[in-house]
Design goal:
With 415 residues, the chain is of the alpha+beta class. It contains twelve helices and 22 strands. The chain is globular. It binds adenosine monophosphate (AMP) and glycine.
Protein backbone atom coordinates (compact mmCIF):
# COMPACT_ATOMS: atom_id res chain seq x y z
CA UNK A 1 0.00 0.00 0.00
CA UNK A 2 1.29 3.49 -0.87
CA UNK A 3 1.06 6.08 1.88
CA UNK A 4 1.68 9.84 2.01
CA UNK A 5 2.81 11.53 5.21
CA UNK A 6 2.03 15.27 5.32
CA UNK A 7 4.61 17.49 7.02
CA UNK A 8 8.30 18.35 6.99
CA UNK A 9 9.83 17.84 10.44
CA UNK A 10 11.34 15.26 12.74
CA UNK A 11 7.88 14.01 13.67
CA UNK A 12 7.09 13.26 10.02
CA UNK A 13 10.47 11.55 9.52
CA UNK A 14 9.67 9.32 12.51
CA UNK A 15 6.15 8.55 11.19
CA UNK A 16 7.50 7.70 7.74
CA UNK A 17 10.32 5.58 9.25
CA UNK A 18 7.80 3.66 11.36
CA UNK A 19 5.49 3.07 8.37
CA UNK A 20 8.54 1.92 6.40
CA UNK A 21 8.81 -1.03 8.80
CA UNK A 22 5.70 -2.44 7.11
CA UNK A 23 6.06 -1.06 3.60
CA UNK A 24 9.21 -0.29 1.61
CA UNK A 25 10.45 3.31 1.58
CA UNK A 26 9.46 3.44 -2.11
CA UNK A 27 5.83 3.28 -0.96
CA UNK A 28 6.11 5.91 1.80
CA UNK A 29 6.02 9.42 0.36
CA UNK A 30 6.55 12.49 2.57
CA UNK A 31 5.06 15.79 1.41
CA UNK A 32 6.93 18.13 1.38
CA UNK A 33 9.39 16.30 3.66
CA UNK A 34 12.97 17.52 3.92
CA UNK A 35 16.55 16.79 2.88
CA UNK A 36 16.88 13.69 5.02
CA UNK A 37 13.52 11.92 4.73
CA UNK A 38 13.71 9.38 1.91
CA UNK A 39 11.11 9.83 -0.82
CA UNK A 40 10.34 13.46 0.07
CA UNK A 41 8.45 15.48 -2.56
CA UNK A 42 8.44 19.27 -2.23
CA UNK A 43 4.87 19.92 -3.35
CA UNK A 44 2.63 22.72 -1.99
CA UNK A 45 0.72 20.96 0.80
CA UNK A 46 -1.44 23.98 1.64
CA UNK A 47 -3.36 23.16 -1.54
CA UNK A 48 -5.37 19.97 -0.91
CA UNK A 49 -6.18 19.58 -4.62
CA UNK A 50 -2.41 19.46 -5.34
CA UNK A 51 -2.04 16.73 -2.75
CA UNK A 52 -4.91 14.81 -4.32
CA UNK A 53 -3.41 15.12 -7.81
CA UNK A 54 -0.04 13.89 -6.51
CA UNK A 55 -1.69 10.94 -4.74
CA UNK A 56 -3.57 9.94 -7.90
CA UNK A 57 -0.40 10.17 -10.02
CA UNK A 58 1.50 7.91 -7.62
CA UNK A 59 -1.33 5.54 -6.67
CA UNK A 60 -1.30 6.63 -3.00
CA UNK A 61 -4.28 5.22 -1.08
CA UNK A 62 -3.72 6.57 2.43
CA UNK A 63 -2.65 9.89 3.94
CA UNK A 64 -1.30 10.37 7.48
CA UNK A 65 -1.24 14.01 8.62
CA UNK A 66 1.56 15.26 10.90
CA UNK A 67 1.00 18.95 11.76
CA UNK A 68 -2.01 20.83 13.11
CA UNK A 69 -2.41 23.49 10.44
CA UNK A 70 -3.75 21.24 7.65
CA UNK A 71 -6.05 19.51 10.18
CA UNK A 72 -7.51 22.83 11.32
CA UNK A 73 -7.80 23.88 7.68
CA UNK A 74 -9.99 20.83 6.94
CA UNK A 75 -7.69 18.42 5.09
CA UNK A 76 -9.56 15.44 6.57
CA UNK A 77 -12.97 16.82 5.50
CA UNK A 78 -11.56 17.34 1.98
CA UNK A 79 -10.30 13.77 1.58
CA UNK A 80 -13.37 12.22 3.23
CA UNK A 81 -15.21 13.21 0.03
CA UNK A 82 -12.71 11.19 -2.06
CA UNK A 83 -11.75 7.52 -2.12
CA UNK A 84 -8.32 8.29 -0.59
CA UNK A 85 -8.14 7.30 3.08
CA UNK A 86 -6.89 9.84 5.59
CA UNK A 87 -5.94 9.60 9.28
CA UNK A 88 -6.76 12.60 11.47
CA UNK A 89 -9.66 14.51 13.01
CA UNK A 90 -12.08 16.59 10.92
CA UNK A 91 -11.88 20.38 11.08
CA UNK A 92 -14.60 20.46 13.77
CA UNK A 93 -12.90 17.77 15.89
CA UNK A 94 -9.53 19.52 15.47
CA UNK A 95 -11.01 22.46 17.43
CA UNK A 96 -9.76 20.50 20.45
CA UNK A 97 -6.42 22.01 19.47
CA UNK A 98 -7.50 24.95 17.28
CA UNK A 99 -9.55 26.76 19.94
CA UNK A 100 -8.48 26.79 23.59
CA UNK A 101 -11.90 28.16 24.59
CA UNK A 102 -13.75 25.44 22.68
CA UNK A 103 -11.45 22.77 24.20
CA UNK A 104 -11.97 24.13 27.72
CA UNK A 105 -15.75 24.14 27.29
CA UNK A 106 -15.50 20.56 26.00
CA UNK A 107 -13.47 19.54 29.07
CA UNK A 108 -15.90 21.21 31.46
CA UNK A 109 -18.97 19.75 29.75
CA UNK A 110 -17.58 16.21 29.67
CA UNK A 111 -15.91 16.30 33.12
CA UNK A 112 -12.32 16.05 31.98
CA UNK A 113 -10.26 17.17 35.00
CA UNK A 114 -8.64 20.52 34.18
CA UNK A 115 -7.64 23.90 35.64
CA UNK A 116 -10.38 26.35 36.65
CA UNK A 117 -10.72 29.12 34.07
CA UNK A 118 -12.76 31.96 32.62
CA UNK A 119 -13.13 33.35 29.09
CA UNK A 120 -12.68 37.02 28.14
CA UNK A 121 -12.41 39.28 25.10
CA UNK A 122 -10.50 42.21 26.59
CA UNK A 123 -7.89 42.54 29.30
CA UNK A 124 -9.74 45.06 31.48
CA UNK A 125 -12.55 42.59 32.14
CA UNK A 126 -10.05 39.89 33.14
CA UNK A 127 -8.26 41.71 35.99
CA UNK A 128 -10.86 40.86 38.64
CA UNK A 129 -10.47 37.10 38.00
CA UNK A 130 -6.68 37.44 37.72
CA UNK A 131 -6.56 39.16 41.12
CA UNK A 132 -8.67 36.37 42.63
CA UNK A 133 -5.84 34.02 41.49
CA UNK A 134 -3.21 36.31 43.11
CA UNK A 135 -1.83 36.98 39.61
CA UNK A 136 -0.67 33.35 39.45
CA UNK A 137 -2.39 32.43 36.24
CA UNK A 138 -1.97 31.36 32.65
CA UNK A 139 -3.28 33.58 29.87
CA UNK A 140 -4.05 31.72 26.64
CA UNK A 141 -4.96 33.25 23.28
CA UNK A 142 -7.85 31.25 21.84
CA UNK A 143 -6.49 30.30 18.41
CA UNK A 144 -3.45 28.52 16.95
CA UNK A 145 -0.37 30.61 17.71
CA UNK A 146 2.55 28.21 17.08
CA UNK A 147 3.30 28.02 20.81
CA UNK A 148 3.38 31.83 21.20
CA UNK A 149 -0.14 32.34 22.55
CA UNK A 150 0.32 31.03 26.11
CA UNK A 151 1.74 33.17 28.95
CA UNK A 152 2.51 31.66 32.34
CA UNK A 153 2.32 34.48 34.94
CA UNK A 154 3.57 34.58 38.52
CA UNK A 155 2.98 38.28 39.32
CA UNK A 156 1.43 41.52 38.03
CA UNK A 157 4.47 42.35 35.90
CA UNK A 158 4.09 39.04 34.02
CA UNK A 159 0.38 39.72 33.49
CA UNK A 160 1.11 43.21 32.11
CA UNK A 161 3.82 41.84 29.79
CA UNK A 162 1.46 39.12 28.56
CA UNK A 163 -1.30 41.56 27.68
CA UNK A 164 1.17 43.98 26.07
CA UNK A 165 2.41 41.22 23.79
CA UNK A 166 -1.06 39.93 22.99
CA UNK A 167 -2.46 43.40 22.32
CA UNK A 168 0.50 44.26 20.08
CA UNK A 169 -0.39 41.23 18.01
CA UNK A 170 -4.19 41.08 18.12
CA UNK A 171 -5.40 44.58 19.18
CA UNK A 172 -7.58 45.39 22.20
CA UNK A 173 -10.33 42.83 21.53
CA UNK A 174 -9.43 39.18 21.15
CA UNK A 175 -10.73 35.94 22.66
CA UNK A 176 -8.64 34.42 25.45
CA UNK A 177 -8.77 32.24 28.53
CA UNK A 178 -7.36 32.90 31.96
CA UNK A 179 -6.78 29.81 34.05
CA UNK A 180 -5.31 28.92 37.40
CA UNK A 181 -1.60 28.17 37.43
CA UNK A 182 -1.03 24.47 38.08
CA UNK A 183 2.16 23.25 39.71
CA UNK A 184 3.65 19.80 39.25
CA UNK A 185 5.28 17.68 36.55
CA UNK A 186 4.18 18.03 32.97
CA UNK A 187 3.81 14.92 30.84
CA UNK A 188 2.58 14.13 27.34
CA UNK A 189 0.16 11.26 26.89
CA UNK A 190 -0.47 10.44 23.26
CA UNK A 191 -3.05 7.97 22.04
CA UNK A 192 -4.55 6.76 18.81
CA UNK A 193 -8.31 6.48 18.44
CA UNK A 194 -10.86 5.07 16.02
CA UNK A 195 -13.64 6.96 17.81
CA UNK A 196 -14.67 3.84 19.77
CA UNK A 197 -11.53 3.25 21.82
CA UNK A 198 -8.26 5.05 22.59
CA UNK A 199 -5.01 3.10 22.81
CA UNK A 200 -2.21 4.93 24.60
CA UNK A 201 1.41 5.04 23.50
CA UNK A 202 4.20 5.36 26.09
CA UNK A 203 4.07 8.45 28.34
CA UNK A 204 6.76 10.99 27.47
CA UNK A 205 8.17 14.33 28.53
CA UNK A 206 9.57 17.02 26.31
CA UNK A 207 12.04 19.77 27.16
CA UNK A 208 10.62 22.99 25.78
CA UNK A 209 13.12 25.51 27.08
CA UNK A 210 16.32 26.43 25.27
CA UNK A 211 18.81 26.16 28.12
CA UNK A 212 19.82 23.43 30.55
CA UNK A 213 17.79 23.12 33.77
CA UNK A 214 14.68 24.25 31.90
CA UNK A 215 15.82 27.88 31.68
CA UNK A 216 15.60 30.41 28.87
CA UNK A 217 12.97 30.98 26.21
CA UNK A 218 10.51 28.38 24.99
CA UNK A 219 11.29 26.57 21.75
CA UNK A 220 9.52 24.02 19.56
CA UNK A 221 11.24 21.38 21.73
CA UNK A 222 14.89 20.68 22.56
CA UNK A 223 14.47 16.99 23.34
CA UNK A 224 12.21 14.31 24.75
CA UNK A 225 12.30 10.94 26.47
CA UNK A 226 10.01 8.00 27.17
CA UNK A 227 8.70 6.25 29.15
CA UNK A 228 8.50 8.57 32.18
CA UNK A 229 9.86 6.78 35.29
CA UNK A 230 7.33 8.20 37.78
CA UNK A 231 4.38 7.42 35.51
CA UNK A 232 3.37 4.13 37.16
CA UNK A 233 0.26 1.99 36.65
CA UNK A 234 -1.69 3.78 39.40
CA UNK A 235 -1.05 7.18 37.80
CA UNK A 236 -1.87 5.86 34.33
CA UNK A 237 -5.15 4.55 35.72
CA UNK A 238 -6.02 7.99 37.12
CA UNK A 239 -5.15 9.57 33.78
CA UNK A 240 -7.44 7.12 31.98
CA UNK A 241 -10.30 7.58 34.44
CA UNK A 242 -10.21 11.36 34.76
CA UNK A 243 -8.94 12.51 31.39
CA UNK A 244 -8.79 9.92 28.58
CA UNK A 245 -12.13 8.15 29.05
CA UNK A 246 -14.20 11.32 29.59
CA UNK A 247 -12.58 12.76 26.44
CA UNK A 248 -13.56 9.72 24.38
CA UNK A 249 -17.09 9.85 25.81
CA UNK A 250 -17.23 13.55 24.95
CA UNK A 251 -16.12 12.95 21.35
CA UNK A 252 -18.86 10.36 21.00
CA UNK A 253 -21.53 12.48 22.73
CA UNK A 254 -20.72 15.42 20.43
CA UNK A 255 -20.78 13.15 17.36
CA UNK A 256 -17.28 14.27 16.33
CA UNK A 257 -15.45 12.37 13.58
CA UNK A 258 -12.09 11.76 15.23
CA UNK A 259 -9.91 8.98 13.87
CA UNK A 260 -6.27 9.62 14.56
CA UNK A 261 -3.70 10.60 17.12
CA UNK A 262 -4.78 12.57 20.17
CA UNK A 263 -2.37 14.32 22.51
CA UNK A 264 -3.14 15.11 26.14
CA UNK A 265 -0.81 17.69 27.68
CA UNK A 266 -1.10 17.04 31.42
CA UNK A 267 0.12 18.50 34.69
CA UNK A 268 0.56 15.90 37.41
CA UNK A 269 -0.39 18.04 40.42
CA UNK A 270 -0.34 17.05 44.10
CA UNK A 271 -4.10 16.40 43.75
CA UNK A 272 -3.76 14.28 40.61
CA UNK A 273 -3.48 14.71 36.84
CA UNK A 274 -5.13 17.70 35.16
CA UNK A 275 -5.46 18.44 31.44
CA UNK A 276 -3.58 21.52 30.20
CA UNK A 277 -4.32 21.11 26.52
CA UNK A 278 -5.21 18.80 23.68
CA UNK A 279 -3.32 18.55 20.42
CA UNK A 280 -5.10 16.94 17.51
CA UNK A 281 -1.95 15.15 16.36
CA UNK A 282 1.29 13.58 17.47
CA UNK A 283 3.67 15.83 19.45
CA UNK A 284 7.05 16.96 18.22
CA UNK A 285 9.63 15.95 19.55
CA UNK A 286 7.68 13.31 21.56
CA UNK A 287 6.99 11.30 18.38
CA UNK A 288 10.71 10.82 17.81
CA UNK A 289 10.86 8.73 21.01
CA UNK A 290 7.40 7.18 21.27
CA UNK A 291 7.33 5.70 17.77
CA UNK A 292 10.76 4.04 18.18
CA UNK A 293 9.46 2.62 21.51
CA UNK A 294 6.40 1.13 19.80
CA UNK A 295 7.08 -2.48 18.85
CA UNK A 296 3.78 -3.00 17.02
CA UNK A 297 3.71 -1.97 13.37
CA UNK A 298 2.03 1.39 12.83
CA UNK A 299 0.35 0.82 9.47
CA UNK A 300 -2.05 -1.90 10.72
CA UNK A 301 -2.99 0.39 13.63
CA UNK A 302 -3.72 3.26 11.26
CA UNK A 303 -5.91 1.02 9.11
CA UNK A 304 -7.68 -0.32 12.21
CA UNK A 305 -8.42 3.26 13.24
CA UNK A 306 -10.01 3.95 9.89
CA UNK A 307 -12.20 0.85 9.90
CA UNK A 308 -13.15 1.04 13.58
CA UNK A 309 -11.39 -2.13 14.74
CA UNK A 310 -8.70 -0.67 16.98
CA UNK A 311 -9.99 -2.57 20.05
CA UNK A 312 -8.77 -5.79 18.39
CA UNK A 313 -5.16 -4.56 18.68
CA UNK A 314 -3.01 -4.61 21.79
CA UNK A 315 -0.03 -2.30 21.51
CA UNK A 316 3.39 -3.83 22.20
CA UNK A 317 6.35 -1.73 23.34
CA UNK A 318 10.10 -2.24 23.34
CA UNK A 319 11.79 -2.63 26.71
CA UNK A 320 13.87 0.22 28.04
CA UNK A 321 14.06 3.94 27.40
CA UNK A 322 14.38 6.28 24.42
CA UNK A 323 15.97 9.73 24.50
CA UNK A 324 15.94 12.36 21.75
CA UNK A 325 18.45 15.22 21.74
CA UNK A 326 17.60 17.98 19.27
CA UNK A 327 20.47 19.68 17.46
CA UNK A 328 19.57 23.27 16.63
CA UNK A 329 21.07 26.10 14.64
CA UNK A 330 22.94 28.61 16.82
CA UNK A 331 20.65 31.60 17.50
CA UNK A 332 17.41 29.56 17.45
CA UNK A 333 14.63 30.30 18.53
CA UNK A 334 15.55 33.81 17.36
CA UNK A 335 17.58 34.48 14.23
CA UNK A 336 19.88 31.85 12.78
CA UNK A 337 21.68 31.08 9.53
CA UNK A 338 20.94 28.19 7.18
CA UNK A 339 22.85 26.26 4.57
CA UNK A 340 25.73 24.90 6.69
CA UNK A 341 26.97 21.44 5.63
CA UNK A 342 26.32 18.68 8.20
CA UNK A 343 29.05 16.09 8.70
CA UNK A 344 29.16 12.76 10.49
CA UNK A 345 25.65 11.57 9.65
CA UNK A 346 27.00 8.30 8.20
CA UNK A 347 29.13 7.60 11.31
CA UNK A 348 26.44 7.28 13.99
CA UNK A 349 25.90 3.55 13.43
CA UNK A 350 22.74 1.46 13.66
CA UNK A 351 22.13 1.94 17.36
CA UNK A 352 21.34 5.62 17.08
CA UNK A 353 18.40 6.92 15.09
CA UNK A 354 18.59 10.26 13.30
CA UNK A 355 15.36 12.01 12.36
CA UNK A 356 15.77 15.08 10.19
CA UNK A 357 13.81 18.23 11.02
CA UNK A 358 15.30 21.31 9.32
CA UNK A 359 17.62 19.94 6.64
CA UNK A 360 17.95 20.27 2.90
CA UNK A 361 19.81 18.27 0.27
CA UNK A 362 22.04 20.46 -1.91
CA UNK A 363 24.32 18.82 -4.50
CA UNK A 364 24.29 15.51 -2.57
CA UNK A 365 25.23 17.30 0.67
CA UNK A 366 22.86 17.54 3.64
CA UNK A 367 22.81 21.12 4.92
CA UNK A 368 21.01 22.94 7.74
CA UNK A 369 17.69 24.48 6.74
CA UNK A 370 15.85 25.37 9.94
CA UNK A 371 16.02 26.12 13.65
CA UNK A 372 15.59 22.57 14.84
CA UNK A 373 17.88 20.62 12.53
CA UNK A 374 18.22 16.99 13.67
CA UNK A 375 16.83 14.65 16.32
CA UNK A 376 19.39 12.17 17.65
CA UNK A 377 17.67 9.25 19.39
CA UNK A 378 19.34 6.72 21.67
CA UNK A 379 17.89 3.59 23.28
CA UNK A 380 19.02 1.96 26.52
CA UNK A 381 17.94 -0.53 29.16
CA UNK A 382 17.98 2.36 31.65
CA UNK A 383 17.25 6.03 31.13
CA UNK A 384 20.93 6.83 31.78
CA UNK A 385 22.05 4.32 29.14
CA UNK A 386 19.64 5.84 26.62
CA UNK A 387 20.93 9.33 27.46
CA UNK A 388 24.53 8.15 26.97
CA UNK A 389 23.69 6.55 23.59
CA UNK A 390 21.94 9.67 22.32
CA UNK A 391 24.88 11.90 23.31
CA UNK A 392 27.37 9.46 21.72
CA UNK A 393 25.44 10.04 18.50
CA UNK A 394 25.40 13.79 19.03
CA UNK A 395 29.20 13.83 19.45
CA UNK A 396 29.66 12.33 15.98
CA UNK A 397 27.62 14.95 14.12
CA UNK A 398 28.66 18.50 13.50
CA UNK A 399 27.74 21.67 11.68
CA UNK A 400 28.70 25.31 12.19
CA UNK A 401 27.18 26.90 15.32
CA UNK A 402 25.29 23.72 16.32
CA UNK A 403 23.67 23.97 19.75
CA UNK A 404 21.99 21.37 21.96
CA UNK A 405 21.00 20.92 25.58
CA UNK A 406 23.28 18.76 27.71
CA UNK A 407 20.62 17.59 30.19
CA UNK A 408 17.93 15.89 28.12
CA UNK A 409 16.29 13.09 30.10
CA UNK A 410 17.54 14.39 33.44
CA UNK A 411 14.58 16.46 34.60
CA UNK A 412 14.11 16.30 38.35
CA UNK A 413 10.57 15.21 39.11
CA UNK A 414 8.60 16.50 42.07
CA UNK A 415 6.85 13.11 42.23
P1 LIG B 1 -0.79 24.84 26.29
O1 LIG B 1 -0.51 25.16 24.85
O2 LIG B 1 -2.16 25.19 26.72
O3 LIG B 1 -0.38 23.48 26.71
O4 LIG B 1 0.26 25.71 27.09
C1 LIG B 1 1.65 25.69 26.79
C2 LIG B 1 2.45 25.44 28.04
O5 LIG B 1 2.09 26.37 29.05
C3 LIG B 1 2.20 24.07 28.66
O6 LIG B 1 2.97 23.09 28.05
C4 LIG B 1 2.59 24.33 30.10
O7 LIG B 1 3.99 24.28 30.26
C5 LIG B 1 2.13 25.74 30.32
N1 LIG B 1 0.78 25.77 30.91
C6 LIG B 1 -0.41 25.79 30.25
N2 LIG B 1 -1.45 25.81 31.09
C7 LIG B 1 -0.92 25.81 32.32
C8 LIG B 1 -1.48 25.84 33.65
N3 LIG B 1 -2.80 25.92 33.86
N4 LIG B 1 -0.62 25.81 34.69
C9 LIG B 1 0.71 25.77 34.51
N5 LIG B 1 1.29 25.77 33.30
C10 LIG B 1 0.51 25.78 32.22
N1 LIG C 1 5.74 18.94 22.06
C1 LIG C 1 4.55 19.68 22.12
C2 LIG C 1 3.80 19.77 20.86
O1 LIG C 1 4.05 19.04 19.91
O2 LIG C 1 2.91 20.58 20.76
Amino acid sequence: MKVAVIGSGGREHAIAWKLAQTESWDNIFTLPGNGGIPNSHAIDTTNFAHIETFCRQKGIELIVVGPEIPLSAGIVDYFRTTDILILGPTKQAALLEGSKIWAKQFMQKHKVTTAASQTFTNSSNAYHFIQSLNNQCVIKYDGLAAGKGVFVCYNTADVTDAFNELEAQYGKQFPFLVEELLLGDEISIIGITDGNTIQLLQPSQDHKQLLDNDLGPNTGGMGAFCPVPFCNDALMQQIKTHIVSPTLNGLQAEGLDYKGFIYFGLMITPTGPKALEYNARLGDPETEVILPSLKSDLLPLVLACLNGTLSQHKLQFHEGFFVDVVLTSGGYPKQYSKGYPISGLDTVGDEVLVFHAGTDLQNSQIVTNGGRVLNIVGQGSTLNNAIAKAYEGVAKISFKDAYYRKDIGQRKSSN
